[in-house]
Every structure is written in structure tokens, then in C-alpha cells.
Amino acid sequence: MRFLASLVVATVMLVAGPAAAQAAWSNFKSADYGFSVDLPGEPAVTHPPIEGTVDTAQFTVAGDSEAFMIMIVQLAPNETSVAGALDSFLDGVVAGAGGQQTSREPTSVSGKDARKAAIDFPNGAKGDAVATIHGDRAYIAIGMRAPDADAAGVERMVRSFRLIG
User: Could you give the count of Cα atoms lying within 13 Å of 114 in the half-sphere of its Cβ?
Assistant: First the structure.
């Protein structure tokens, strides 16, 4: 899952740079990609090309000291059935960003097997993530914050992530 590296690194860099103040929090839903999540503003949506995938979507919101990203990657038909695919997906995102995972625990998202992780990033940012696989799509929601920023927003985003449809 090394292909996710540049996408995650770019999002981590958002935490370190200047950005506009965040809007009020609201629940964002994407019927096309089958998820909902609380975010502090309307996300920018991109579809970065990733080798070996059919479709990708990245939803990002960046504020003064936080950045939030939801990434959806459509996997090859046989890739989701591989034992350990969920852990490999999360490992690839963390390694690709040069992050250091400080904890990981099994959890569930909308009744699906998931993993929640805490991550330290090279630029000093702290992050929480939740990853799951549903059908042929891998989902990861990552909230990142500057080291001195309150963790409440990041925790809210990760906790609110749901699959819909």
C-alpha cells in the first residue's frame, strides 16, 4: 500500500502550514462513496490516480492547527479477501506518511471489522485514524493536529465516521 504515501504526506503537511479558520462542525455525507463523518467545514474532494486501483476519492478539510482526511480506495476484486488486508492497508498508510504508530486496537465501524490507531507524524503532528474495508473499498479517516492543539476535534471526526447505504 505504498501508493498512499504522497497523499497522506500532503495532508499531514496541511497541519504545519497556514490555513483558513475552520467553519462550524456538521455531518458530511457522501452517498456516492457510502460514508458519513463530522467535519469542521465542507471538504475539498479530489480523485488522485493510484496505480492498481479502479477509483479513489480523497476528502480533506484543513484548519489552523488540524487537518482531516477521508480516503476511499477501490481495491482489486481479490485484494479484500486476503487475510490481513485491513491491517496491511493501515500499515501502508502509516508507513507511507513516515508515521510511527503508537497504538492500534480492533474496533468496528457500522458493524464492520475496523482498526483504530494513534499516529505520530515526522513533522510533529499527532493523529488518530480508523480504517475499515467494506465490499471492494478500503476506507480510512485520519484526523491530524499540531502537537500543541487540543485533540477534541480529531477524536470527534474519527469517532463519528460511519458507513452508509
Answer: 23
Kindly report, residue by residue over 116-153, the tens digit of the pLDDT.
999 999 999 999 999 999 988 999 999 999 999 999 99
**Dihedral over Cα of 45, 126, 24, 28: its sign:** positive
How sure is the predictor about 55, in pLDDT bands with cuts at 50, 70 and 90? Answer: confident
Neighbours of 145 (CB within 10 A): 23
Q: Using pLDDT thresholds of 50, 70 and 90, give the confidence band for residue 14.
A: very low
What's the order of all strands across the beta sheet hosting 44-46? Answer: 44-46, 56-62, 66-74, 137-145, 126-134, 112-120, 100-109
Give the amino acid at 118.
A
> What are the structural domains, with CATH classification, of the chain?
2-19+32-163 (3.40.1000.10)
Distance CA(18)–CA(2), nearest Å, equals 28
